[in-house]
Amino acid sequence: MSSTVSRFVVMLALVAVVCASGCCAGYVSHVLDYPSTAAMSISSTGNILVDAGPSQGVPHAMLWILDKPIIDLRDNVAAMDMNERTQIVGSTRYPNDRAHAFLFDPSTSAMTDLSVPGERWSEAWTINDGGVVGGHFSMDDRTSPAFVWSENDGRTVIDAFGGEFTDIYDINESGQVVGTGGMGEFMAHGFVWSKGSAVTEIGDLGAGWSYAKAINNDGTVVGYSGIDMDRQGMFLWDSSGGMRCVLEFPRTVELDMYTINESNVVVGSMTDTRALDPMSHAFVWTPENGLTILGVGAAIDVNNTGQIVGVSYGRAILWQPEPVPEPSSLLALAALLAPAGLVLRRRKA
Description:
four-stranded antiparallel β-sheet, mainly beta, Methylamine Dehydrogenase, Chain H
């Protein structure tokens, strides 16, 4: 085992002990007491979209507002994303047991089927505040191009590189879309697309493949890419500066990034496949503090106030940033603890 991998295994082992409760230094965690749930999205005001699994009866979407009763939104759906207008996208199943992409508006109870005649299945993964939806579909169960849908334009099909698949993961408020297309895991290429423009391949870190996973409103993209046979990296990309690696991992670590906010705060999950008991760990990365492991699970969304949601031990979770003490508060705490430290030193003496 290489020294890089060894250090990573030790780091995650220590984190599993310190953060076993799902909380970590700098964050206070709140766990939803419903099994088989995952928090998929959080609004700027703290409204949380929860996807509930079959153990709760039938799959359904719920709205979680901290310290308030849970609101059931819709049954028989797998919820994936929510915008500031509380519009929800995901997939639902019809009698033929095929998934259909949908858009649901709780304010009007309007359920819009985004599928088209003849398709085998479709899923909607992301929605922006303007109601533009991104997802993917298949007409033949062999290839799966992506689509962008809006009320004005209907469905636009995106077949990025003519391969087996094209996936769209995120859309910003300008309508810029990010995703990945190609022939397989290590023949995938990250891209950016917007209405009226061609697909733009964003490159890679050296190994010839990349995944573009999220984009913020400044056009900064986060994703991961191979560096060489042994290493991969999390990258940031923008149209002016190109791609730069901000965090390096061994290839034995399974990575995923789900969201990047306006401060370039990134959340995601990582799993060290060479650990004795591989478990996914939620993480947050910031340009100022680098990587912080939040605990077992996955961090799926972060809003612009730094609230993070995801899943831990099969339950929806919210990680709230702890306020940073003012310097005056730290001085007061130091003054308060100073006598105790003096007594401790005297006893040792």
